Amino acid sequence: MPRVRPAPAPLTASAWLQLMQLASPALPVGGFSYSEGLEAAVESGRVTNEAAATRWLLDQLRLALGRADLPACASAMRAWLRQDLARVSELNDWLLQTRETQELRLQSEQMGRSLLEWLRNKGQDDALSQAQLAHLAALRPAPSWPIAFALAAAQTGAPLREAMLAHAFGWAENMVGAAIKAVPLGQSAGQRMLQALSAEIPASVDAALALPDSQRQAFTPMLAILSAQHEAQYSRLFRS
Q1: What burial letters (b/e) apply to 98-125, b meaning 16+ CB within 10 Å?
Q2: How far is CA 66 from CA 39, 90, 183, 200, 204, in A?
Q3: Does the pLDDT at position 2 exceed 60?
Q4: Which has more confidence, 179 or 233?
Q5: Domain residue spans in the chain?
Q6: CATH number belonging to the domain at 37-231, selected among 1.10.10.10, 2.60.40.230, 1.10.4190.10, 1.10.357.10
Q7: pTM score
């Protein structure tokens, strides 16, 4: 007989609200201050309007976030839940070592450190949470953003898929905000872009959850080129 898997635990109201908080641009980790190469794409003339910005972010969701950060974050959340700290360290090393430019690596490190401080300030004093935070703080050279997010999501008690949906939506909202400022675009255009990304996010999350380690990759040559150019861009609004 085929083995029947138990249904995932339901998403409680408390976990749902905590995921909304983690996905919010108001979370004090500085996500709003990065464009992840989008500003350089605007400067080079590759992104000039709403349609081009939407295509750019959909491609980035599928080819970058969906093949690297999302599967690594999901694996890290599983590792935090089973207390596999060696696996957490391995995933953090992979994420930082595969960042394709200096500014993308600095972004992940800065946001990871900021989320670590936010978690510390929540005042969780149980022994397990303190041990997890100590390991997160000990990661060198810094905890990466997906690894820190995975711990924050694990501590909410939310199911894995819902946590990854929140992670992807938080990225999408920050990137749409960057597009509104950089292209520039109006608020209505931004909402249409967010709707297009939201329609694609569930499939990207499901693909990321099914992706084996051997197929996880960070390979986006044009994004890397633009990010490297952005490091020396004369006039810019964003840190990446």
Answers
A1: ebbbebbbbbbbbbbbbbbebbeeeeee
A2: 21, 19, 24, 11, 6
A3: no
A4: 179
A5: 37-231
A6: 1.10.4190.10
A7: 0.94
